[in-house]
Amino acid sequence: QVQLVESGGGLVQAGGSLRLSCAVAGHTFGSYAMGWFRQAPGKEREFVAAISWSGSSTDYADSVKGRFAISRDNAKNTMYLQMNSLKPEDTAVYYCAADNRRYYGGTGIYNYAYWGQGTQVTVSS
Length: 125
Fold this sequence. Notes:
Radius of gyration: 13 Å
Low-confidence stretches: none
Order of helices and strands: EEEEEEEEEEE
Number of strands: 11
């Protein structure tokens, strides 16, 4: 089965930057959509960013527009989330998601069949 492994999380001061990576292990068929979601303590999982298989379509949550950038390198089977100007409210577990049934998954969590275990991002004030 497809396995997604996130990395790059950690502790950072407000205003700092981190780059998350999502490595795809296993086997996939055809095109697939990917995205990032996050979940803070006591809150539901929320959409962060999405990208189509080719990278031609992207979407961002309003809270991260202008600060985060999603990208992918299909040759390396890896997706990235560059996070700049981090704020304490960005603190959450960040999850990588993928689906090989479609080119683009959009904002809905139920459009993604595969999920990573998450990586913790903590932004101090």
